[in-house]
Amino acid sequence: MRGLLKVIFEGICTAKGTSANRTFCFLQRDIERGCKLHSIILKWGLLERSPFIGNTLMSMYIKCGALVQARGLFDQFPARDVASWTLLISGYADHGHVQEALQLFEKMQHEGEAPNAFTLSCMLKVCGLTQTADKGRELHALILRKGLLMTDTVLGNALLDMYAKWGALTRVHHVFHELPNRNLVTWNALIAGYCQQGEGEAALHLFRQMKEEGFAPDSITFLSAVKACSCIEALKRGSEVHTEIVRRGILENHDVLANALTDMYARCGAFTMAQDMLKSLSTKNIIAWTALMAGYSQFGRSEDTLCCFESLRQEGLYPNTVTYISALNACASLKAIDVGKKIHGEVVSRGLLGMDPTLGSTLVYMYCKCGELAKAQELFEELPARDVVSWTVLIMECCENNHGEKALGYFDRMRCEGFSPDEVALLCVLKVCGSIGAVEKGDEVYVEIARKNLIGKLSILSSALVDMYAKCHALAKAQEVFDMLPSQDVSSWTALISGYCQIGQHDVVLQTFSKMILRGPEPNVITFMVVLSACGILGLVHEGQIYYHVMSSYYGIIPISQHHTCMVNLFGREGQLEKAMAMLEKIPPSERLPACFALLNSCKNLKSMKIARFVFKNAIDLDAM
């Protein structure tokens, strides 16, 4: 111990870092001895001699992850230099304590200590992680004022990376072209930024441009290029990148790249190549197996997903939360409840349920899809952590299983517990409100949608809002919402037309349909069903025949059984029974029963017993099928 003190003391006296660095490397491996040395330094009063010794000790604490001790030591410093501040800020940033880093930087500025380039680089990293746009732009302005971009490439790269993490690709491009000295790290930050934002095509374009400008890609560049190919499912280009990686000898013993290639091939559906990559790994790892499982899941190959799951466990690997999620989704698809229950037990025994809310949500989803809604509800109540997804899954499943009141109950609880419903939850609740006529609850959802400024932005949600009011027979409100939409799609038009049909305003149905033809989108299968139904009720045989004809001849919609049934009803109501019979013959026997009942009703009203007997016998035969 005295020898260590002597080395550090010599470092203080000579102000040379060589011996101190050797000391620091030793202390980094032995925090207990480092703490003892700290006590002796305090006892001997060495901390006051120079910030150098304090900074060395603080580095030891930071490298060991002992940030509380590092901060305690920092607060004891009789004098701090820029290195002291920067060391602790960097330590906070590296260990994910970003708020503490921001606060310490504010304190540094308040105490009049000017940050150096490395301090600013650390803070740019913090701003990137925290999405602290105001502070990030303030730092950018400070860097420009100091003229540091012209001389410090590392700082320029950090600035580029910050904007990339924000998804501000225009700013990324601008900063990139401002930098006088660009190196491989600069290009890597640029390509990674585009890749992270899902701009795979642009990332690959930059990858080519970088090579054209004479920069040789390294493993980090190739990793981004492979991820870009995964993002846009570009199998051919991904294979070309793979070939280049092998040619440059980078792949050997580089499992991170091999994992990314496995993921790329799996996402592109090239499962033979993905399996070959998996086999080539120097050591099998859970990330590659999980990538293969995710690929199978993406392509609906649920049985292969579960086979992978069994294989990785036979190899002695422990599934992570993402692995379990893929396996549970496969169980949901196959309704493999027994396998799902085993996975549930394993997740609980490993204490993973509280670590990732998505895992809990997927378990709830699996039980729902396997027909065990009660078990799903029980599990939901036991979840240590719920997120918006878990609430939404339960609301959605209650909705699909016609438990409307339960769905609304969960929706209310979700908001009471401070969760903001997402678009899927809002869509499900609107559907429930329409099905049970809960217009007041629908009004609440309308307010929520308006507050989130989603009206008109999501067409499916806007159409569902119109549909909800229409099904609740609140047509004035449905029309009001419809009229305020910036653009009305076929779903919103059809919802409005259906609403008028449901309340018996069949003349308004045809008027609205005429407006749709003139200024709206092309009608769909459902639109024509509603219009033909209205024609039948109004007795508009000629108009009905025209609509039936143009549906296929002009709009290219092949009539289905429901359209034929509407025409059977239309002809039958107007006494044109021969035409009704001819239309009945167009309907497949297995789908003919509703049309038979409609025609029987017409025969009864017209007292046409001959046709009625034939249709009745036909209906009896169909019912027996």
Automatic annotation (TrEMBL):
<protein>
    <recommendedName>
        <fullName>Pentatricopeptide repeat-containing protein</fullName>
    </recommendedName>
</protein>
<dbReference type="GO" id="GO:0048731">
    <property type="term" value="P:system development"/>
</dbReference>
<feature type="repeat" description="PPR">
    <location>
        <begin position="285"/>
        <end position="319"/>
    </location>
</feature>
<dbReference type="Pfam" id="PF01535">
    <property type="entry name" value="PPR"/>
</dbReference>
<dbReference type="InterPro" id="IPR011990">
    <property type="entry name" value="TPR-like_helical_dom_sf"/>
</dbReference>
<dbReference type="InterPro" id="IPR046960">
    <property type="entry name" value="PPR_At4g14850-like_plant"/>
</dbReference>
<feature type="repeat" description="PPR">
    <location>
        <begin position="183"/>
        <end position="217"/>
    </location>
</feature>
<dbReference type="InterPro" id="IPR002885">
    <property type="entry name" value="PPR_rpt"/>
</dbReference>
<dbReference type="GO" id="GO:0009451">
    <property type="term" value="P:RNA modification"/>
</dbReference>
<feature type="repeat" description="PPR">
    <location>
        <begin position="387"/>
        <end position="421"/>
    </location>
</feature>
<feature type="repeat" description="PPR">
    <location>
        <begin position="489"/>
        <end position="523"/>
    </location>
</feature>
<keyword id="KW-0677">Repeat</keyword>
<feature type="repeat" description="PPR">
    <location>
        <begin position="81"/>
        <end position="115"/>
    </location>
</feature>
<dbReference type="Pfam" id="PF13041">
    <property type="entry name" value="PPR_2"/>
</dbReference>
<dbReference type="GO" id="GO:0003723">
    <property type="term" value="F:RNA binding"/>
</dbReference>
